[in-house]
Amino acid sequence: MAYQAFYRVYRPQSFSEMSGQSHIKQTLQNALLYNKTTHAYLFSGPRGTGKTSAAKIFAKALNCEMAPVAEPCNECASCKSITEGSNSDVIEFDAASNSRVEEMREIIEKVRFSPANSRFKIYIIDEVHMLSNSAFNALLKTLEEPPEHVVFILATTEPHKLPLTIISRCQRFDFKRLTQADIVERMVEVLSDAGIPYNEHVLKIIAQAAAGGMRDALSLLDQVVSFSGDEMTVEDALLVTGSISQDMFYDIAEALLAKDVGQSLTLLEQLVRDGKDPVRLVEDFITFFRDLLLIQTAPDLHDMLELAAHEPRFEELAKQFDAAMLYSWIDVLTKTQQEMRFSNHTKIYLETALLKMVQADAPVAAMSAGASPELEAKVSQLEQMIIQLQQQLKNGASAPAAAAAGNSEAKRRPRSQSGYKIPVARIQDVLKNATKPDIQALKTNWATVMGQLQKSHAALLNEAEPVAASADAFVLKFKYDIHCQMAADNQTFAVAFSQLLEQYTGKAYAPVFVPDESWLRIREEFIKSNGLKAGAEDKRAESEEEHPFSAEGEVAEQDPFIAEAERLFGKDFVEVHED
Hints:
Layout: H1 6-9, H2 22-33, E1 40-44, H3 51-63, H4 77-84, E2 90-94, H5 101-111, E3 121-126, H6 133-144, E4 150-156, H7 164-167, E5 171-174, H8 180-194, H9 200-210, H10 214-228, H11 234-241, H12 246-257, H13 261-273, H14 278-297, H15 312-320, H16 323-340, H17 346-358, H18 362-369, H19 373-395, H20 399-412, H21 424-432, H22 436-444, H23 446-452, H24 455-460, E6 464-469, E7 473-478, H25 481-489, H26 491-505, E8 510-515, H27 516-529, H28 537-546, H29 560-569
Parallel strand pairs: 1-4, 1-5, 2-3, 3-4, 7-8
Antiparallel strand pairs: 6-7
Catalytic activity: DNA(n) + a 2'-deoxyribonucleoside 5'-triphosphate = DNA(n+1) + diphosphate
Protein name: DNA-directed DNA polymerase
Family: Belongs to the DnaX/STICHEL family.
């Protein structure tokens, strides 16, 4: 007969042979003994934790000729045929390769037929999450009310992909990852039965690499046995599993403790050059420092060590570390592990993590080692200032000053809400060259241009109006700072607005945006600097004729209805009659 892998030869044939999962085994065995089995079960959990094996053992116990029993006898014809896979009443269905609704309908059509030689017809559907939505819908009604002689056992590694309507019709059992002790114990049984000598430290390395999966552990064990030949060695196990030796952990930990950056990075480079995965290295470092922390805080719990072996050198190394430092290093490595998931440059992240670990308390150490006299004097001076300020606050001397500063800040705050930088130079240039025909042309066509704009652009101009215009630009005043900021940031708006104005006025006016409050200030400063503001009304009128912008923006002195009419239709089209 051809050679078979360990995980196939040593597949559990009874609940007692299963490793771990005691909560599931006890529940199923009690249901078998007291005839309280149901019509549908859902076995979910990580790969290699015994879901399919438990389904087959449960199927054998249900159909065993000695039933009701808590364990299948594995001696009757029914148990043997199920073990060999030749029992026509126990149907194993792989949903990964038969996910279509047509395959599911074939099962449903045969469900109503009674079992040929057994008490129950049992359907074991592996990787059930791979079924299509149509297949789930076809299975739904049959799963809810199957014939009395039918039992469904669904197995999946991703239960979150199953419809809730399926999950609610099943008894769910969640399989957990196996502990390192369970895996080692099972490997000892396998090797003892096979007559192969073993080293327990080698088995611990394999169990650590298996990450809680028994099938992975037995597959790695098969590889190590094949690679090693007569005797398994630690070096062979490290090479096959991709793990690193404990001595290398010692060297890196001692280099980090001594703050030897060069040695730490050199050892890391050597590991990566040997083919070690940086993501796996981070995980191993976290586990190793966890073991150091465990031995340091609870020396008697050496049986709980996951990666390191309990030996004198390990205990001596643990005594050299401070618990706070180990907590800090584990935190750095954990954050690095999360960041590495989204990057292709994992080695750089690991190198950065080692540097952070080395330099974690460097500034404190540097100051405590000996600071310069000037620095110490400066620190002393700052301490004295802090003491004086605290004394003043206690006496209440600085309260008025603080209140005044707070009031001043509160007054200034509204004027600095917007981060918009006002183009004062451009506005002044428009004011120098402003003409009355240009502003009239803009206001005459303002309503038409507003109607042609996009709704989002027109919304920005609801509270805006042109207040001054030259031959190639105009000043657009906004009531609210936020609208001014949004318009200035929207380049598409400025271009579209300028093009529309050119269509109706014949000139490509470039808009210059300014908030209302800033416009009044800039306008007043311009009038003063150019000597345009005279005391008499005739001079003001003359100034307005020469610089038509000077009367704009004084809406507060006008009737609000007149101002709104002039804004909508233009001053030339509004005539005021006083009663």
